[in-house]
Amino acid sequence: MLLRCIAGMESPSQGQIVLNGRILFDAKSRINILSRDRRIGFLVQNYALFPHMTVAQNIAFGLPKALSTRHRRQQVATQLATIQLEEYGDRYPNQLSGGQQQRVALARVFASQPEVLLLDEPFSALDTHLRSQMEQEMVAHLHRFHGVSLLVTHNLEEAYRLCKHLLVLEQGHTLAYGSKYDVFERPGRLDVAQLTGCKNFSAAKAIAEQEIFALDWGVSLRVMEAIPDRLAYVGFRAHQFRFVNELTDQDNTVPCWLVSISETPHRMTLFLKFNTPPTHLQDYDVQAEVFKEKWEKLKQNAQPFYVQLESLNLILLEA
Predict the structure, then answer these.
(1) What is the pLDDT of residue 23?
(2) What residues make up the domain containing 312?
(3) Torsion angle of alpha carbons 150, 152, 157, 158, nearest 10°?
(4) Is 20 left (phi over 0), alpha (psi -120 to 50) or beta?
(5) Residue 221, SS3?
(6) Can you say whether the dihedral through the CA atoms of 159, 163, 167, 172 is positive or negative?
(7) Where residue 271 falls among pLDDT bands split at 50, 70, 90?
(8) From start to end of 171-313, where are the E strands?
(9) Does pLDDT of 249 surpass 80?
(10) Percent of the chain whose predicted confidence (pLDDT) is above 70
(11) What's the pLDDT score for residue 82?
(12) Is residue 268 part of a domain?
């Protein structure tokens, strides 16, 4: 919906849309610039190529209407070369693979010389191998594009790979905005941490200047950063658990028992219970992710295992 409003396909009931100082929409002043005059490129999920037009005709559709026939042909040839489909100009969309269709749709968008590029989950229709290839091509295109790019995705890893900055939205409201490193490492709020893929949370309270108590885990934890006044939770990411050989005097080292495991092609997720053995399969406190090679060695150890929740990796959160 946000992309459609920016593109002029939907009209908000209130507010403004301003691009590089140019007002595209203003509800109070009743300004609503037509989509074709906004200089916005929109790549939708299904690419929306015209089935009755050839590849060359689809690309030419995005060109300014005032261009001469000769300049239009030159521009189309340039775009075809950019997307490495020089020999495909006379083909129709149904004669192309999914990746080729995306390239053509992207070439049509860039042909219009947009100030903003809107990308609506552009890889969702592609298989895993092709998605990775097209991501790399998209990175190259975005590197050459000097305007603003806005990518909508529900895939956190995709967002992290492609974007320098992240905007977290929920129910139309901004929950967080900043560099991807800041949003992931210091989400600040429980809902933002959940949306960035953190799986382990406990209600928490401060018990000393640099110490908190995780109520759900029954564990005291030393922290490095200043404890927020409105501390409500502590979080810990599944891949950051450090398994140690024994209970030591190191801060935040806790005994734990294995409750169950879940397997993916390359990783194991271990469901762990702190301090006491579990009583049933749902009796776990945290999830830890390890590579299979690590698990092959770890599973040889007698229980309890011992894990360290390093202070630098603790995420202190407000409600």
Answers:
(1) 96
(2) 198-319
(3) -70
(4) left
(5) strand
(6) negative
(7) very high
(8) 173-179, 200-208, 211-214, 219-222, 231-236, 242-244, 253-263, 267-274, 286-291, 305-308
(9) no
(10) 99
(11) 83
(12) yes
Domain boundary among 183, 207, 237: 183
* pTM (2 d.p.): 0.79
Domain count, the chain: 2
Residues 315, 237: Cα–Cα separation, whole Å: 9
User: How does the average pLDDT of the chain come out, rounded?
Assistant: 91
Cα–Cα distance, 167 to 177 (Å, whole number): 4
* Domain end residue (candidates: 183, 214, 249): 183
Q: Each residue of 3-25: pLDDT tens digit?
A: 999 999 999 999 999 999 999 99
SS3 state of residue 280: coil
Q: 301: which residues sit within 8 A by CB, 6+ positions away?
A: 245
Supply the CATH number for residue 172's domain.
Answer: 3.40.50.300
Length of the chain: 319
Q: Clarify whether residues 159 and 22 are in a common domain.
A: yes
pLDDT of residue 203: 98
What tokens appear for 29 in the block? 């002043």
Contact 208, 233 (CB under 8 A): no
Residue 294 CA to residue 50 CA, distance in Å, equals 51
- Please report the DSSP string for 37-96 in residue order: GS-EEEE-TT----TTS-HHHHHHHTS-TTS-HHHHHHHHHHHHHHTT-GGGTT--GGGS
Condensed to tens digits (0 to 9), the pLDDT of residues 290-307 reads: 999 999 999 999 999 999
- Please calculate the CA angle 275-268-131 and round it to the nearest 5 degrees: 140
Q: For the chain, what is the largest distance between any 2 Cα atoms, rounded to a whole number of angstroms?
A: 78
* Single-letter amino acid code for the residue at 218: G
